[in-house]
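Sample entry follows:

:::
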Amino acid sequence: METVSLNKSEVARSSAAVRLDRLPIGSFHKQVMWLIAYVFFFELGDLNTFAFAAPELRVQWKLSIATIGVITSAAFIGMFIGATTGGWFSDKLGRKKALLITTVWYSTFSLLNAFVWDVPSLFFTRFMTGVGLSAMTVVAVTYISEMFPARKRGTFQGWIMTIGLFGIPITAHVAEELIPWVTYGWRLVFVWGALGMLILLFANKIEESPRWYENHGRFAEADAVLDRIESRIKAQFGSLPPLGEEPVTAAKRGKFTDLFAHAYLPRTSMLVCAWIFQTLGFYGFMAWVPTLLAAHGFPLVKSLLWVSIMHFGAPIGALIAALISDRWERKYLITIAAVVIAACGLMYGLSFKMIPIIIFGFCVSMFIQTFAPLLYAYTPECYPTGIRNSGCGVGYGVGRLANGFGPLIVAFLFTHYGYKSVFVYIAAMWLMVAFIIATFGPKTKGRTLA
């Protein structure tokens, strides 16, 4: 570990973990919440822009369901590259820089989606957008876990997702208005998705993670960030609670290969499998609902309206996660949520009238977004600071890589076995997630992060 000249020795100083975990929730934490929620708002909206544009694009460009599947797969292959490299990038460069760079990346390529002229160009821009989207996500969830006290990190992951998830129904509504308006309305949907780059206007309000500074031996910089945070909290509350006990094991520098060493290989394997099945289940539903409804005979405008209504369940689901995440053990909450999603998704696939479709679609959208903040909070808790972002990136990224084939599976099932078979497949994916987390997942609630 590199050494630096310090005013106080490493032994004498209190660690970032202890200083952050004792803090009451104040204006600093709420500022972080709104800034990260902003980038999630457009990230989550951008994940769905192609799903909303695809039905119209299918008509204008005379595309088959299989071609839509190939283009959708491009984004998920990009997500694998973005997540695995983004996690490593953040562990090396720092959380703040990585967050800003990845947000600008996905925003830029979202904008370029609006100017494509054929399938290969759209394949390329969706691939590059996917790189930035998943890289930003793994950086952001790690940043949240490192900046909030242990007793509240799950709660604020839920609050951030609650705010950010309004990006999905609002983007659906934007698509509903823009696509029928003009022939190039689907292009304007991608322009909307590019607004995340405005986070640069607030870059000076984002602090680097002091845990990351500390892990890289940059103790003076870690203390400077901690001093600024504590000053804001003192100004608000007048005094700080006493320091708690130091972690039993200090955070150590790590390397990417540690994820596959004896100590962490079982945990990495568990998370990779969980992320694979949840991604197949998540996007098997969310990315395909507008296209499948339209292909099943429902009018396009009506399909987009129904999907828009369904997606308003998403922020409610994340709010549920915010309320329960730190009350009970997260691995059990994740398991229960996955089973409920499987049941609601299957009932959705067996429904052919407007009201049941909207009700079960709303429930799937809601409980998926109860599940997501729980897993986002859980994954970084499974690793120490030195490899935390890399670990998140591998799990998240391999899941996205698996979904490079997911749209092809959905297209195959729909073409050869019909509408219902898609939802049987989706339910099976969610039941696999429940089994894996319940059987192999460690308990993490309230644990101080090393």
